Amino acid sequence: MKAHEDDLKIATQNKSIIEGLYKAFATGDIPTVLGMMDSNIVWNEAEGNAYADGNPYKGPEAVLNGVFARIGAEHEYFNLKDIELHEMYNDKVLANLRYDAKRNNGNSYDAQVAHFWTLKDGKVIAFQQYVDTKKLHDAMNE
Length: 142
What we know:
By secondary structure, this protein is an alpha+beta fold. It has one domain: Nuclear Transport Factor 2, Chain: A. The protein is built from four helices and six strands, in the order H-H-E-E-H-E-E-E-E-H. It has helices at 2-26, 30-35, 60-74, 133-141, and strands spanning 37-44, 57-58, 75-87, 92-103, 108-120, 123-131. Strands 2-1-6-5-4-3 form a six-stranded mixed beta sheet. Strand 5 (108-120) and strand 6 (123-131) form a beta hairpin. The longest helix has 25 residues, at 2-26.
């Protein structure tokens, strides 16, 4: 029973870490977001997403330059909304959310998203995005 209690405690801690990461992202505190990543994080954008051209991004600096900086440069605004976090075992956290964004070309989109996080010792070691890439593609190219 003790092992189960420990797993539950870790799952709850991991969910809190990811909740803190989303809060930091929402306020534009990117240094805190990057600080929550392991130095060897493996980050994958959804296949078909324009930002997947660098998959897998390895390390926080690669994520910053290959994903976050590009999103910032190409969007008037980019918000995460309706975030629901789900505790999982084996150091995983699943997030269901929506991207509420407007590109610099004037096109906005509201896309359904899932983020699959893997943590180790309180740091994010892996990230996988799942998103409606057609919506993103249409907003980029219309």
